[in-house]
Amino acid sequence: MSTPKLPCDLCQQPVKIQGFSLKSITGVKVFCCEGCKSIYQLLNPAQFSNPQPL
Ligand SMILES: [Zn+2]
User: What's the fold here for domain 1-47?
Assistant: First the structure.
């Protein structure tokens, strides 16, 4: 079984190193590097806001 490489959610390059992932309200996002991860958070702050407590 082989694991397909996911594209970085910011720059779309194949993610070679796992570990730069983020849980957003729409699901888990993966990134190729720390830079893409932090830029994505800056560009999409609404996706990482805490859900309203029930
Ligand atoms: Zn990237």
Answer: Ribosomal Protein L24e; Chain: T; (2.30.170)
